[in-house]
Amino acid sequence: MDKIRTRYVLVAWLVLCCVLAYWQTLNKPDRRLVPLREKIQTQHSLTTMSPMEQPDRPKKNLQTQHFLADIINESSMERSCKPKNNYVFIKTEKTGSSSMATILFRYGIKHDLVAAVSSDLHMHIHIDEDTDTLLIYPYNCPHFPGYNYLANHINYNRVALEKVFPRAKYLTIIRSPVTHVKSAFYFFRVLSREYVNFTNPLEEFLRVHLTEEMGNLPLRNWTAEMFFNSQFYRLFDFPENIDEENIDAMLEQLGRELDLVILTEYFDESLVLLRKMMCWDFEDIVYRKLKKHKFEQAPTTPEMERMMKELAPYDLKMHEYFNKTFWQKVENYDGNFEEDLARVRAVQQAVDARCELEPKSEHCQLLAQDVGKSTRLAIENQKKWDCE
User: Fold this and answer.
1) How confident is the model at residue 36 (pLDDT cuts 50, 70, 90)?
2) Are 312 and 228 in contact (CB under 8 A)?
3) What 3-state DSSP class applies to 39?
C-alpha cells in the first residue's frame, strides 16, 4: 500500500513539474529569437537622424547613441580632423541636386549654422552682375556671426561668392547629358505635351532641335535652352561667348576652384568623398531620394544618345572631364574607400527599409522634406538674427 501511495506521489510531482515548466515557456521569450529581434530593431532605429524640429518645439537630445550603431560604430572611430561648417553648393537642374541639398540643409540646421537665402526668400539666389554681389537676405543683428553655407540654385560666380564665403568648401553636382536631357524632357511636361502623339516623343523632340535653329523654335519651347548644356552654363555663369578652343582650360580652372564635383551616376561614392572632405559622420549623409516622377517613357536608342550628346556638347565635355578627376580622388582617398562605401550603403539600406515600413514616422518625414521645406525651416531657425 505504501509503495502504491509513493508511486502516486511521484507521478503527481512529475506532472506538477511538467505543468510548471510548460507555463514558464509560455511566459518566457524564445532566446533564439532575441538576437534577431534586437538586430532588426537596431537596424530600423533612427535615433539621431536629424534635429530638424519645428523652431518653437523643445529640441530633443540628439547626442544620444548614433543610429544604426551596429553598422556605423562611429563611437570607436578616431577623429583626427575637425568638421567643416562652411560650404557652398551650386545646385544644378535635374541632376539629383535636391537630394544633395537636403543633406546640406539638414546638417546646417542640426549644427545651428546660418544659410544664405534669397533676398526675396525664394529658392533661387540671384547675383547683381554689375557689382558681383549676392542678393541674399540681410541679417542685421549686431552680433550676427555671418553666413556658413548656401545650398540653393545659383550661378557660379566665384568673385561674388568669395565675398560671403571666403573660407568655404565649394561643391556641385553634374550628370551625363544623356540621362540629363531625358530627365528634363519628362520633368518639364510643357515640352513633352507637344510630342505626345509620337511613338517616341523624346526622339522627335531631339530630331526637331537638331534640324531647327533654337531661335526658330516656338517661344513655348524656352525651357529647351534650360537643359541643353544648362549644367555648363550654370557653372560658368552663362557666358555670352564660348571659346571652343579654350574649353579645356576653362574646365581645368573650374576643377581647381571646386573642391568636389559630385556625379549623379555615382552618388553613394560621392557621399564617401564628401564625408571625408568635410570630416562628417555617416549619419550626416543619409538621404531619401526626392522628386521621383513615374512617367511612361519610350526606350532610349543609340541614335537618341548620339543626338543628345550632339545637342549638349559642353555638358558632355564637362562630364567627361570631371568623371576622370572624380576617380582620381577615389584613388587618392585617405582611408579604405571600399569599406566606407559599404558602410554608406548599409546605412542607406537600413534607412530605406525603416522608411518603407514607417513612412509617416518623424525621422522619415524629416528625411523626405524637399528643398523648399528645408529652406523655410532654415529661415525660421535664423529669425534670431533678424533684429528689425
Assistant:
1) very low
2) yes
3) helix
